[in-house]
Amino acid sequence: MIWNSLMSGEVFSNWIKNLVPNPTTSSNANFTKGQALDPFETSLRVTKRYTEHLTNIENSVDISGQSCVDLSKACILERNDTEYVITPLGKSVLQKWRELGIDNNSNDDEFYRVFILILEANRLNISKYVDMLSFWREIKGAGDPIQLINNPSSLYLIGVLNQKIDDFNPWELIQKNHLQFEPIDTITQLKKAYQNDSDVIARIERIESIWQNDFRPKGRQIFCLAMECVLSEIDDGISIINTQNMNHLMGNFSEENLDSSFENYSLLNVGQNTALVGDNRIFYGAPGTGKSTEAKKIISGCPFETITFHPATDYSSFVGYYKPISTKNDNDEHEIQYSFQAQHFLRIYVKAWKNLEHEHYLLIEEINRGNCAKIFGDIFQLLDRDEQGFSDYIINVDSDISEYLKENLDEDKYKNAIKALVANKNKTSLADEDLFSVIALPNNLSLLATMNTSDQSLFPMDSAFKRRWNWRYIPISTPTGSIILNVNGDNYDWFDFVQKANKKIAVVTESEDKKIGTYFVRPKNKEIDIDTFVNKVLFYLWNDIFKEELGGEETNNVFVIDDNGTLKPTFYSELYNLKGIDEVAVQNLLEANEISKI
Description:
With 598 residues, this protein is of the alpha/beta class. The protein folds into 3 domains: 1-23 and 126-231, no CATH class; 280-470, Rossmann fold; 484-592, no CATH class. It is built from 25 helices and 18 strands. The longest helix is centred in the middle third of the chain and has 17 residues, at 215-231. The termini are far apart.
């Protein structure tokens, strides 16, 4: 349905009469022009003149007062206490124009200058330009953008329509009812609908006078065409460049210019610390190699959350869940209320977005002991990251998470960042009411995990999940110094035991997964007591590896004793007597394995 069909009536008549003063009595009276679709003011409607003015300011040469005002409206200049100075946007766009070799004295490079201006303003998150891009996205959904650009009267009319008076906004009506905005002869059709109301006709003609000046329409056409290219996929942008009836606006702009610009401006700037790049990393290796120690070295001094996965871990215990809480009502009676309780992932997510300057970490211990598909759910899509460390994909969340985010992240910095992410990744705009309905990992939040290769995981990771992680193998190392095994009054070398046991493990398992690391158990005062050694170390070696090897080659088995120069197998149970651990039997095992004494 064409929007004009719903516009003829008292509501629109009252709206336009309240917007535009009566031209009969106030022919030159100003009225608000609505949502802008270009940054230009008064006479300064070509960026070719920006360079001249900015260069003058760089050289301390005065420029006219009106030019200063116009450049300020475009966010290129700002006034301090005594003078106008170039803004960060002004400095960066001038530098870009020069770096790219754009001829700032040429009308044929006007589109290229505007295109770079929009990209640079979007990169710096300049709200005026971000809002114009957002509005253009809405316009693209209501009509053919190229037709609109070729009919500049419609470009001005759309902006005028987007303002609320007495709770009525014509553009909102168009949006909510998914109406089409027909750009050709729109003003003519509107006049026809109100041909019997001279007051409305007079006001339509007053609006029409905005674009009667020759230099105004082309400036807006070029700016809107540049926004269309910025928001298009590269193939669509190339198609626009090659459209014949766009040549008069495109000038010298080429496919090569478009391609290189998109490559340079694919990076986001949402106020983050650009030195940080979010990572997903799993530290894996044999038990006791120091995987957790390596991870904790990285997170030392940084905000972090930690969780240990196990078979009962699920999405709710990882992200959040509703918990019944007993409270007292006004009558001092107990009542049960349910409150959403954010868990490890959501808590660190909020902390990271609140402080983009510093690194934050989520540490997952024993990641392969949990059902990762069940625990992560659709969050695993966030693990795909771009070159800056942001999530490449943005996902929707349930209302309970959305409410939690709104309570804890309702601040402009986060809302602007999420808007920018959605625009960059999805090429769409995000309505204000949907700001907390999506999530994406920031570049300062890294996920670290540990995994024992010896564990018989209950829930093997699928390849899609694995490929979203970087993997770091932690080998078995022998630290400097010594750790002693105190057995039956003698001190044995723990490091020597680890090395010799691992050689036998490698032979019988034909793998390194079951080997033990030097940190398999924690010594106390550089000593491992016999209880720890037998009940943790030898039990693991027996139960997981060597009990199946009895009857094989004794020289490849840890569970042997020396019987008058001959190695004989021994059972784990033979390390005990009626009083408990038999230290003589344990000592015989160590001697048979030729473990050095200290």
